[in-house]
Specification:
Elements lengths: L1 H15 L5 H9 L13 H16 L25 H13 L2 H4 L14
């Protein structure tokens, strides 16, 4: 049932075209005025650009969720990837709805809405 509800939310956001975009999602994750997530060896600009490219690539691939659930908590050792448009849409919605602490896998509360680079 949860999968159906999540799928409904994703399709509603995509169809309304009022939901988050790759740009707004990556902006939230990596801009200094929002979450400002940082990773060693990467500039905020590089992180944001990589995020947008990754997201937009997934959006160009038709397909379902295939078991992907961004609202499940993952640690830094788990490899999570976005491969389809439904996964990317679900991921963007998760990031939009989550606090910065929940997004950063390095925080005690983090690990949600993976992948976060």
């Amino acid at each position: 049932m949860r999968q159906f509800a999540l799928l409904f939310i994703v399709f509603s956001a995509v169809l309304s075209a009022c939901g988050p975009t790759c740009q707004s999602t990556c902006q939230k994750l990596y801009s200094e005025s929002e979450c400002n997530l940082q990773r060693p060896g990467k500039s905020q600009s590089d992180l944001k650009n990589d995020c947008e490219n990754y997201c937009e690539t997934a959006l160009n691939e038709p397909g379902g969720l295939n078991g992907y659930d961004p609202f499940g908590r993952e640690g830094s050792t788990n490899s999570v990837s976005l491969e389809t448009e439904d996964q990317a849409a679900s991921w963007m919605y998760c990031v939009e709805q989550s606090s910065c602490e929940r997004l950063d896998y390095r925080s005690g509360e983090g690990g949600y809405c993976q992948p976060v680079w």
